[in-house]
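User: Please predict structures.

Assistant: First:
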Amino acid sequence: MRRLLISLLLVCSCSGFSRYETQLEAGRMDASWPACSCTPSSLCNPVSQVNESRREIFAFHVDHQHNYDWKRTINWTEVTTLAVFGLPPYASELLCWAHQRKVRIVRGVGFPNSQIPNVTARLQWITKTVADLKQGGLDGMNIDIEGNHANRGALTALVKEARHAMRRELGPTSQITFDTTIYPSATNKGYDFRALNQLLDFFVPMAYDMCWGTTTAKPNCPMSGLKEGLGKYKKLGITGDKIVIGLPWYGYDFPCTETSAPDTPCHVVKPFGGGKWQKCYNEMLEMEKSAVVAPQYTPSKDARYFAIKDSKTGKYNQLWYDDPVTLRLKYDLAKSERLRGIAFWYDECVANGDHTHMWATLSAYLQ
């Protein structure tokens, strides 16, 4: 999903939008959230009246486009938590607006893998981070530490220390969550999932970028991979009420080696383009207007795809993405598995376009 300026685990839990990485490089991940100035001042307190019986809708908020009408685009009656990565220029207004509607604002945070065993560095980071959350009136943190291959005990200690400090300073309703790979067994050297399960409000397994490094175009989030990953969490004793499954509101624009319009397969050019090939849902809809191979679904309906011709190279691209049809099946799976809820990367992917169908599919999931 995201690269926090650390080494990546290239097995299903990696990547991220290059626009997000730009924010990291610009230091906006470390910038302090402005002190809360909501009126009334009670809106500066973490959201306390939360209906725990309803499903969690956890939206990642990343791009911070200056022309993004976030008030209108986000469905504030359905979203329960907005996880904000970076520092939007409208941060103060966003916090007040969300709290007025009983929506949590948590901050996406990371910590350098190399410093995980460093007790002093951990405590300094926790002190600064929790103080920032408190002054900003935020509701908690969404931890994104990817590619960790060692010191899993120290990582557990970091989460325990962060949870203790946050509950002490923000109160018992503050929220702490962790973005993890869809395949936990692939990363058990760096992450003690059973221990983390005792500390977190829930995990957010990232069920996307499963096509990372592929040589042929294929789904970003195949249903088979999603089912397999959830099964692995279940084997670890992690129950559905501790899982908010992360699903993609974006896809991949795969450049093909073929010189004639490909149906399937499309053999992907090398090297793999990673985040540079990712396109938001609204971008996919616009590009689909130029399709030279009619849009269609995979037999299992876990992805929609079409082909376009690159006017610069004369070659063809295949574009694979999730839409309301494919996501509905994945939401139904989440419901049948009794998961705590749905997360999606990311809300700006329906900005400045037709977003009604995507939200309507989420509404159906909540019924």
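Second:
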Amino acid sequence: MSEEEDVHPIFTKDPDEWMQYLYKKVSVVTEDGEEHVGLVYTVDPVSETFILATFADTTKMEIVLGHAITSVTVLSEDTESHKQQLDMLFRPKALATLSPEEIKRKQETLRLWLLKNRLPVQVSGSDG
């Protein structure tokens, strides 16, 4: 075996190659000829595993293991609408319904708790 064969792809593959798939609709074909179509939620760069989501009547998550993948084809480049759908998957529904006043109140409560426990905190950004 040559030295190049001993190096894991995580050390040779550019992270941008994985990032190009995020939030896009793709078709992933596996060794057994199965085609898996969905929106890319994430890609594990170590195992080269894709996590795909589909939204029909119910939300379905599918793990396609990297060792079984033979090809990946991008079907849709529309990342903005897909990103919003995917980002809401694991957020609590209550968080999405908070008013700006409630968010400010929670932020101030957290800031005071941090100060009370002697943790330095500084609010920054347009909302701070």
